[in-house]
Amino acid sequence: MAPFEALYGKCCRSPVCWGEVGEQRMLGPELVQTTNAAIQKIRARMLTAQSRQKSYADVRRKDLEFEVGDMVFLKVAPMKGVLRFAKKGKLSPRFVGPFEILERIGPVAYRLALPPSFAAVHDVFHISMLRKYVADPTHVVDFEPLQISENLSYEEQPVEVLAREVKKLRSREIPLVKILWQNHGVEEATWEKEEDMRAQYPELFED
């Protein structure tokens, strides 16, 4: 059924099929009945399409599962101690570990063997927070020097000022500094307000 037919209750008239379609008027109960029938037909076709798409996706979806004794990485979120001025260059999540799975808690949660430095963190995690143990030095952080909080975040520390620039607004100028962050490469350096960085990390600007 074409969108025009569903909306107006009749086929779209064109020069090709002008004589075949003809003029048709529906009033009162007949119009309501025809409209309801069209709605039911559209809903049925939508459900069929959704069911087909779900079946297609389910065939290719592999449920993530781990076994007791497996080694996994735990996802943590890097946070910075200053408010961002620019949104670009957001620090991406990192994975710490690996940690051993001690117990499966229900279908989607696992208990991990955590070190003493994780004393403030609950040891049961949803499967979405875990990753299979695969060596990848660009996404793994040594957790020993990190202070992991209860919400699995840690504060990143600036390492070096890479560049400076001034952002010009309508009525003022804002000095910015490009900061290299610990545990991140140069490609993830971010622009921050120099005023905020000097207040939060004065040692970064000492000669």
Instruction: Return residue spans where pLDDT drops below 50 for at least 5 consecutive residues.
Output: 16-22, 81-90
SS strand fraction: 25-35%
In sequence order, what are the helices and strands, one letter per element? Answer: HHHEEEEEEEEEEH
Number of strands: 10
Q: Cα-atom Rg, whole angstroms?
A: 29 Å
**Structurally, how many domains make up the residues?**
2
Nearest-integer average pLDDT? 74
Principal-axis shape: flat
Major sheet = 7 strands, mixed
Q: Give the terminus-to-terminus CA distance.
A: 73 Å
Structural class, from helix and strand content?
Answer: alpha+beta
Q: How many distinct helices?
A: 4
Helix content: 10-25%
InterPro entries: Chromo-like_dom_sf, SH3_Tf2-1
Domain Tf2-1-like SH3-like: 69-134
Organism: Cucumis melo var. makuwa (Oriental melon)
Protein name: Pol protein
Model description:
Pfam families: SH3_Tf2-1 (PF24626). Residues 69-134 form the Tf2-1-like SH3-like domain. The chain is built from 4 helices and 10 strands. The chain has helices at residues 3-8, 18-21, 29-60, 194-200, and strands at 71-79, 94-105, 109-112, 124-126, 130-132, 140-141, 153-155, 158-168, 173-181, 190-193. The strands form 2 sheets. Strands 1, 2, 3, 4, 5, 6 and 7 form a 7-stranded mixed β-sheet that branches. The protein is flat, with a radius of gyration of 29 Å. Residues 16-22 and 81-90 have low confidence and may be disordered.
Quick rundown:
Residues 69-134 form the Tf2-1-like SH3-like domain. The chain is of the alpha+beta class and 207 residues long.
